[in-house]
Amino acid sequence: MANGRRKDEWEEPPTGFVAEANITERDADAFPEAGWPACWEAAADLLEWDRPYDDVLDDDGTTCWFPGGRLNAASNCVDRHVAADRGDETAIIWEGKLEETRTYTYRELYAEVNAFAAALRDLGVGEDDVVTIYLPMVPELPIAMLACARIGAPHSVVFAGFSADALATRMSGADSEYLVTCDGYYRRGTALDLKHMADNACLSVEQSIERVIVNRLHDDIPAGDHHAFDDLVADHAGTEIAPVERDVDDLLFLIYTSGTTGEPTLVRHTTGGYLAHVAWTSHAVFDLMPDDVLWCSADVGWITGHSYTVYGPLSIGATTVLYEGTPDHPEKDRLWEVIDRNDVNVFYTAPTSIRAFMKWGSEYPDRHDLSSLRLLGSVGEPIDETTWQWYREHVGGGECPVVDTWWQTETGGVVLSTLPGVDSMQPGAVGRSLPGVEAAVVDGLGKPVDSGLPGELVLTRPWPGMAKSLCEQTDWGGRRTRTADGDWQYETGDKAVRDGDGYLHLRGRADDVFNVSGHRLSSTEIESAIVGVEGVAEAAVVGRSDTVKGMAVHAFVSPESNVAGDDALRDQIERAVESAIGAIAVPHTVTFAPSLPKTRSGKVVRRYLEAIANGEDLGDTSALRNPEIVGELESLLEQ
């Protein structure tokens, strides 16, 4: 509903949760009275500063958060917890693909990070040298990130599912001469040779690359022009490297956008603003406390994993879960087994993944004790009401608050969400902007639209986690602009509707529209109507060229287990779309599929579906979690 659900249908957080929440209604009321800088002062107070900052924000042409301040991200994520006598508390729990587990206390993490930081220095890595990290979900990944941060070397993590060409492009783009990778890793029980990919990538770049290899598949790594990670750490065991003081505006890392809606873009994040932002949102949105266990299911190769697997939880001093496997291997209850065994308190995943859980059936979470969970989160795309309710009922036991978060690689961390100890939950609505953040829904001229009307989502005030490129654009070009009145504005590229209660309902990308017979149709609205049909687990719609209409709607639909993808279900889908939107939006073609192509973090990659629907070349599919599905879908259309 454009105007949202009636308030008597909203969900309230449990009384017990509210009483113990990090941010209470009293805190939320105090922020507006104190002014928006107070929010970010509270964020900065969660960190340990080597030199105090002079002000919250300097926006004199170039935005700088906490100017004058100096700090080190690794020290904030590791050292200070050891110094506070929390060295024996668990920092990382690793769940490996082959039923392996490893646990690192903060003291053990401190030793590993120091040893590898010393090794990097001996290899010639200096302050501001970019280190590329091409690793799967193994403990050496966050260790390498933190070691880089310790010595002031920005890291560039490249998703292990990317091809050699993609890795080479990213190393060249970052002008990186150092690569940390591994001999291989496991996908659904099959060993994949990552070192071969890395070697090919190194041959494709102009600069000479110093390589460090992590043992994952074998005990020994063949001799060659590289160094073994384990040997380097052993050789430098016991070495302590003083953390390099970094200016707040110094780079912490480089990362590329996922490219699911267009060409990947290099995004750079700085040390002070980013770290304060992810620490505060971990504290306020995820209600994370030092004795909590958080599992963010996203791969660390994406920004979600950077912010809420590594830097956010570790800056708070909590325990973070690192999972190498896939949700359905070896069995479809694998995730719930991990939550049960490790007493996970906060679980953060994508709606696409939740719809897959729904498809498999509630019997899988029902097999396990999930009572340790006290908060659930959603990220990556809009979540429909049906999926939201299933998530809360069958994973959260009907008691956990659900935070539906919105943010981007460029924002660094969450900027839109409810506060779980303060706000009522409206299933299907992301909520309001967080304290200290301002959002608006505007028309094509940048003017705010009335509640209930769709428009483009813009952020109208800077925030600490913003990418460095947004801070630097003094000409107000690109997606950071000045309105006609001279106000600051960031064009997110997403569509939204604000209801009468001020809650925002995301409607997908502004460019995710179809022009059918002159009518612009939202892919998200059509998909929401389809997944509301009983028996449908997930759906994605794309545009297909049509000689009459110009573009026709093609729906790829994955039914739930034991539900047939037949004419009866197709009829129900068509009626649901016609009822929700109109006859013009009814899909011209419905293809029933066992699954949809997804990234490792669970996002549906619609550009592959569009290529399949239009009979176009798919290009490189190696970044997909399930690359085999594209062949199956092509075969279905050929029948």
From TrEMBL:
Which keywords are on file for this protein?
Answer: ATP-binding, Ligase, Nucleotide-binding
Q: What EC number is given for this enzyme?
A: 6.2.1.1
Keyword Secreted in the entry? The reply is: no
Start and end residues of each Acetyl-coenzyme A synthetase N-terminal domain: 38-77
Q: Which InterPro entries match?
A: Ac_CoA_lig, ACAS_N, AMP-bd_C, AMP-bd_C_sf, AMP-dep_synth/lig_dom, ANL_N_sf
What one GO molecular function would you report for this record?
A: ATP binding
Biological process terms from the Gene Ontology for this record are:
acetyl-CoA biosynthetic process from acetate
Keyword ATP-binding attributed: yes
**Native species:** Haladaptatus paucihalophilus DX253
For this entry, the protein name equals Acetate--CoA ligase
In this chain the AMP-binding enzyme C-terminal domain maps to 525-603
Q: Upper lineage ranks? A: Archaea, Methanobacteriati, Methanobacteriota, Stenosarchaea group, Halobacteria
Q: Which domain of life is it from?
A: Archaea
AMP-dependent synthetase/ligase domain spans which residues?
Answer: 81-463
Instruction: Give the family per the record.
Output: Belongs to the ATP-dependent AMP-binding enzyme family.
Name the SUPFAM superfamilies for this protein: Acetyl-CoA synthetase-like (SSF56801)
One matching Pfam family: AMP-binding
